[in-house]
Amino acid sequence: MLTFNLFRKYFLPTLPILTLLAGLPSAASAQVATEPPTMVATWAANPETDIHSYIVHFGKDPEALSHQANAGNTTSFEFTDLEPGAVYYCAIVAVNTSGMKSGMSALVPFWSPSGGFFEGADEWLMTFGFEPGSPMAVDHNSDGVTLLTSYALNLNPLDRPLASMPKARVVGDKLQMRFFAGRDDVSYRVEASADLRNWSDANVSLSPRDNLLYRTASIVLGGNERFLRLVVSR
């Protein structure tokens, strides 16, 4: 959650504290967004008792916010009709019952995901310097690990992710593979094979997610199957 320092201006309301969050529409699936996620600005109420309303200023140019909306005497505002995948900037102004306005709150950037994006991928992409909405199937450093794979397995795509990929190992009479499975917008499937051509998950046992959001897949050795592979997908 983003927070900002408050300060007072003479005869004017204090600056609102602004945060931004993204949430799925209530009708969307818990795993796949069937509509673009809603973008909501929230802020802490000003301490003054004479606040009349809050004005939300936003736009794609941080130097000239081109839109504004009156949020009334509430502490949240839902954005509509945003351009999918675009980066926006937002600030809040408080207005008192005499019509006096505060200065703008600190400027907060946010991006408008489209329904085609992964729920949490835009924030993840920006953490590593990629543009929001970057194609997840891209192998940007040609090491065989796509952005989707790095995202699904919680790997750093800039720091030799191939070396950190899950590996199968023999434990007693089983072949096991432990892997991160904490993305709810990604499908994880583990399959076994005897010949590296025919794959099936019929004989694969999967543990529940542990407290670190990892799962362990295993097959019993002694039969024909002796290879494991992990498949991640939308």
Distance between the termini: 28 Å
Task: Please describe the biggest sheet, giving its number of strands, its sense, and whether it closes into a barrel.
Answer: 4 strands, antiparallel
What is the count of β-strands?
A: 13
What portion of residues belong to β-strands? 25-35%
CATH architecture of the largest domain: Sandwich
Find the CATH superfamily of the largest domain. Answer: Immunoglobulins
Q: How do the helices and strands follow one another from N- to C-terminus?
A: EEEEEEEHHEEEEEE
Instruction: Report the C-alpha radius of gyration, rounded.
Output: 24 Å
Main sheet: strand order:
4-3-6-7
How many structurally independent domains? 2
Briefly note the structural class of the backbone.
mainly beta
What is CATH's topology name of the largest domain? Immunoglobulin-like
* Oligomeric assembly: single chain
**CATH class value of the largest domain:** Mainly Beta
Question: Runs with pLDDT <50, length 5+?
Answer: 1-36
**Number of helices, where a helix is a run of at least 4 consecutive DSSP H or I residues:** 2
Shape annotation: elongated
Averaged pLDDT, please? Answer: 78
